């Protein structure tokens, strides 16, 4: 079973995350104290079809930056741990997801090399209680700790909620493709022999 459970405690946050990549009936339990972020993480879990539990207690009296970033760090670390040697996984995933008038695109490579390309603009500083600039911060923390190449793009759209939702859903679906075990792949999907 490919799964991981990790905790991170700092002077700013206390994060506990567990995930399981192969559950037949995935469960999702998320509490971060940031309503919109909980909603986005739930969408990610649903569309990636992973079991995901996240308990985050952060310094929300300051703002939600530390909470969102640290959750991204721990999700990335859990993904890296759960994937192990990455034998027989597809490695790559990509997905377009429409959300009403918005269209999001994500492509990723579980390469062992960290890189983020984020191409999205938001017309307001907040959606609900969530700072829109934290979308990029979250995905950067996740990509660098999972050691993945991650490209996210909003091709078009007007509603900021819809744009962000399209990205989280597309990320979940692209990740599902990448982590799938492919029996046709012997060892790791790389000419180097390691990922």
From TrEMBL:
<keyword id="KW-0368">Histidine biosynthesis</keyword>
<comment type="similarity">
    <text>Belongs to the imidazoleglycerol-phosphate dehydratase family.</text>
</comment>
<keyword id="KW-0963">Cytoplasm</keyword>
<comment type="pathway">
    <text>Amino-acid biosynthesis; L-histidine biosynthesis; L-histidine from 5-phospho-alpha-D-ribose 1-diphosphate: step 6/9.</text>
</comment>
<dbReference type="InterPro" id="IPR000807">
    <property type="entry name" value="ImidazoleglycerolP_deHydtase"/>
</dbReference>
<keyword id="KW-0456">Lyase</keyword>
<protein>
    <recommendedName>
        <fullName>Imidazoleglycerol-phosphate dehydratase</fullName>
        <ecNumber>4.2.1.19</ecNumber>
    </recommendedName>
</protein>
<dbReference type="GO" id="GO:0004424">
    <property type="term" value="F:imidazoleglycerol-phosphate dehydratase activity"/>
</dbReference>
<dbReference type="InterPro" id="IPR038494">
    <property type="entry name" value="IGPD_sf"/>
</dbReference>
<dbReference type="Pfam" id="PF00475">
    <property type="entry name" value="IGPD"/>
</dbReference>
<keyword id="KW-0028">Amino-acid biosynthesis</keyword>
<dbReference type="InterPro" id="IPR020565">
    <property type="entry name" value="ImidazoleglycerP_deHydtase_CS"/>
</dbReference>
<dbReference type="InterPro" id="IPR020568">
    <property type="entry name" value="Ribosomal_Su5_D2-typ_SF"/>
</dbReference>
């Amino acid at each position: 079973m490919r799964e991981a459970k990790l905790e991170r405690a700092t002077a700013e946050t206390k994060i506990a995350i567990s995930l399981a990549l192969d559950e037949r009936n995935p469960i999702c339990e998320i509490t971060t104290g940031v309503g919109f972020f909980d909603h986005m993480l739930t969408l990610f879990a649903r569309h990636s079809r992973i079991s995901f539990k996240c308990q985050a207690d952060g310094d929300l009296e300051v703002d939600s930056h530390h909470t969102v970033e640290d959750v991204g760090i721990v999700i990335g670390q859990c993904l890296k741990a759960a994937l192990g040697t990455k034998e027989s996984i597809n490695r790559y995933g990509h997905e377009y997801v429409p959300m009403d008038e918005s269209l999001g695109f994500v492509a990723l490579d579980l390469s062992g090399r960290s890189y983020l390309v984020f191409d999205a603009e938001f017309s307001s500083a907040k959606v609900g209680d969530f700072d829109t600039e934290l979308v990029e911060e979250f995905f950067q923390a996740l990509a660098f700790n999972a050691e993945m190449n991650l490209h996210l793009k909003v091709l078009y759209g007007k509603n900021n909620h819809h744009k962000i939702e399209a990205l989280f859903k597309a990320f979940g679906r692209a990740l599902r493709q990448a982590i799938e075990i492919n029996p046709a792949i012997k060892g790791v999907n790389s000419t180097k022999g390691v990922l």
